[in-house]
Backbone:
């Protein structure tokens, strides 16, 4: 189990991780989501003892990473940044890592077979493609048969076969009872891989809940309606317990200029029936499908690193920013 | 590649029993690192070939000059202190390869990012540096001693028509063994600077600048009493005294004192490197 408690990391005046707390449980794949620059890699590097936290702690099975007696047998990590000497062969890279843990060289060959790099094991790692490098990183992570795996953007640069392979590997490891934390900025990837997701933005926790719950909660069930008579329709929807707001007046493909509403609290069928009963003309009636992508954008819309951050001094966060973490806590009472 | 294949290979039979990571394991790992990159082989090959070739070339040229009456001034050195002459010509060039290799051994960990893999395996960090120092210094010690002795015997044979030298003469064995010791400490000196600067080009330029340029400039201070002390306490200068039989003009430190000063500086730099390794984010 990985536990992050009140973790804060400052680089100079930049706050990379901001009082972050969450835990990663065994037996499931936990997705670690956030836009670029949200603090995912920094958090993972602190968990792994590579970066020193400014305050707070990160522990593995109750201990700091540095106190693990034979760390690669407990934790396997694939970092986003390269960590292989370009002039050293894949086999020698794995061999020196195995030797630090007292692992036999037969384990190196087994890992080379696992990731399919045996035929190029004696080639210099600098000649590897991005996909081959990722496979070598996975082999290094799996070397000590660890119970806990941290993978930072593992599918980056992989071909579809490689993506599928990583996905199945992670699911397989979780099914064996291992703890798997995988970071990504690709929401759809996490939707099919992760059982549980932790979302952060600008170093703060935005959500920590089962994947379906985040999708359901954050994207809600909404219906897009286009009608020439929005006032009448809004009245009908409000009278029947729904909620309608004017959406941005975008043209549809046919050049339709009719106003558009976003309806929540009523299913599309019910909106259609209400409109028909009152003889309100509808040009469009579209149930909005929930996706993790939308849920994510909704969650992180206030916390993108390159939006409006420069203009705001530290500590003067906009109200929307302050509101976010609270909304994240509602479903999962375990947070803070 | 398939998950089914994976499940059988992930089987933990090869991994247990878990044992505590010992220093011996770390030294083995550092040896694997050092032997598995080309820069080690190339640097050492250049060191051996350049040192032996230049030792032969410069002693031969000087002996020839003496015999034909061309270079009265340089011949003085060869006649008055032939052992120093032999040890400081070829090794004076060859040592640059040791400087480069020492710096690279540390800086390539950073430039290639392999430091992250190293520290994930050994999160206490300092054992990585310690194991690297022990393994690297041992390798350099063995090779440098062999090269020192071979250089000496090449030089001895070449200068034979002019002057007789042998290991049985006073202090000669100390100087020849000392040349290997000097190179060993120099390799750690370069490694320490690599651990402080972390960038290959910067570290190499700094080490070579200190060894070749600054030591020479400090000669200019020898007209002053304090200047001689500054000159002698400068690490590469102090370290070089162990290869001398006849003390240099204005030499303040004895050979072993000089060597101790060099070791002291190197230890200080290594402590600085260790402190930064522990403190910095990797």
Residues:
């Amino acid at each position: 189990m990985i536990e992050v408690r009140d973790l804060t990391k400052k680089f100079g005046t930049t706050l990379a991780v901001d009082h972050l707390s969450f835990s990663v449980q065994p037996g499931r794949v936990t997705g670690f989501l956030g836009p670029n620059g949200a603090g995912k890699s920094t958090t993972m590097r602190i968990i792994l003892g590579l970066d020193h936290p400014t305050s707070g702690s990160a522990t593995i099975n109750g201990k700091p990473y540095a106190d693990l007696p034979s760390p690669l047998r407990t934790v396997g990590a694939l970092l986003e940044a390269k960590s292989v000497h370009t002039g050293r062969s894949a086999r020698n890279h794995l061999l020196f890592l195995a030797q630090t843990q007292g692992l036999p060289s037969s384990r190196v060959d087994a890992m080379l077979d696992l990731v399919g790099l045996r035929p190029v094991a004696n080639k210099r790692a600098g000649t590897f493609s991005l996909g081959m490098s990722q496979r070598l990183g996975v082999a290094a992570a799996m070397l000590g048969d660890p119970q806990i795996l941290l993978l930072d953007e593992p599918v980056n640069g992989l071909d579809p076969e490689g993506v599928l392979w990583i996905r199945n590997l992670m699911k397989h490891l979780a099914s064996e009872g291992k703890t798997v934390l995988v970071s990504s900025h690709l929401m759809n990837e996490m939707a099919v891989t992760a059982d549980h997701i932790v979302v952060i933005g600008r170093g703060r926790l935005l959500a920590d809940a089962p994947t379906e719950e985040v999708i359901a909660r954050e994207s809600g069930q909404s219906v897009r309606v286009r009608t020439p008579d929005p006032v009448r329709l809004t009245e009908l929807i409000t009278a029947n317990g729904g909620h309608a707001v004017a959406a941005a007046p975008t043209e549809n493909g046919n050049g339709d200029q009719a106003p558009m509403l976003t309806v929540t609290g009523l299913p599309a069928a019910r909106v259609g029936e209400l409109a028909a009963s009152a003889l309100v003309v509808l040009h469009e009636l579209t149930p909005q499908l929930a996706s993790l992508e939308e849920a994510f954008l909704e969650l992180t819309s206030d916390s993108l690193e390159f939006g409006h951050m420069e203009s705001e001094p530290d500590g003067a966060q906009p109200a929307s920013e302050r509101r976010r973490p609270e909304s994240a806590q509602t479903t999962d009472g375990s947070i803070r | 590649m398939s998950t089914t294949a994976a499940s059988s290979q992930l089987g933990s039979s090869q991994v247990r029993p878990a044992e505590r990571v010992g220093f011996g394991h770390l030294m083995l790992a550092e040896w694997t690192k050092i032997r598995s990159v080309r820069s080690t082989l190339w640097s050492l090959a250049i060191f051996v070939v350049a040192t032996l070739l230049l030792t032969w070339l410069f002693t031969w040229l000087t002996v020839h000059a003496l015999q034909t009456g061309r270079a009265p001034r340089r011949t003085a050195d060869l006649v008055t202190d032939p052992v120093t002459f032999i040890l400081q010509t070829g090794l004076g060039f060859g040592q640059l390869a040791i400087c480069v290799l020492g710096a690279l051994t540390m800086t390539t960990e950073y430039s290639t990012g392999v430091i992250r893999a190293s520290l994930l395996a050994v999160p206490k960090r300092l054992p990585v540096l310690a194991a690297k120092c022990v393994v690297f210094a041992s390798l350099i010690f063995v090779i440098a001693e062999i090269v020192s002795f071979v250089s000496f015997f090449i030089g001895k044979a070449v200068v034979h028509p002019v002057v007789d030298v042998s290991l049985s003469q006073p202090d000669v064995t100390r100087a020849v063994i000392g040349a290997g010791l000097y190179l060993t400490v120099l390799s750690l000196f370069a490694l320490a600077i690599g651990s402080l600067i972390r960038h290959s080009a910067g570290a190499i330029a700094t080490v070579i600048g200190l060894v070749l340029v600054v030591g020479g400039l400090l000669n200019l201070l020898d007209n002053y009493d304090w200047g001689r002390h500054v000159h002698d306490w400068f690490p590469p200068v102090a370290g070089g005294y162990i290869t001398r039989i006849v003390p240099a003009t204005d030499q303040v430190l004895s050979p072993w004192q000089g060597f101790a000063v060099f070791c002291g500086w190197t230890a200080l730099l290594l402590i600085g490197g260790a402190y930064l390794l522990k403190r910095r984010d990797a």
Q: What stands out?
A: Chain A touches chain B through 55 residues (CB under 8 Å).
